[in-house]
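Quick start: what a row looks like.
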Amino acid sequence: MGKITDEQKQILESFSCERLSHEQENKKLIKRFENVKGRSLVSYLKSLAWDEDFECKTAYYLIKSPDNEIALFFSLKCGALFDPLDEDLIKEKAERAQKWLQIVKNMHRGCRERELAIQFLENFRSA
């Protein structure tokens, strides 16, 4: 495999990478962008990407040619790195897990505890 030539490097450096919602002009560019091999992805770019990028749900990037046309695009979504943890939800799930653990432990104690555990499980199942 050969080394990249100066000419190839110059061509690559003439392209730019830019966050989709960084420039208002990009809204116009994505409306004109077409690609027959990735129609569903292009459709997603045109309909949902701007809002997702602007709201920092997913980061979209455009690779632009020297003529300021979109050559390609890609997105990154890193989940918890961008979405803050909901501490109340985590506490609620931990409490629920503790309750389930206690129910399982109680099922092996006596008849009354077993009845209560089965009743609780049945109520949960039918809810």
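That is the whole record. The helical segments are 6-13, 25-32, 39-54, 87-106, 111-126. The first strand starts at residue 16 and ends at 19.
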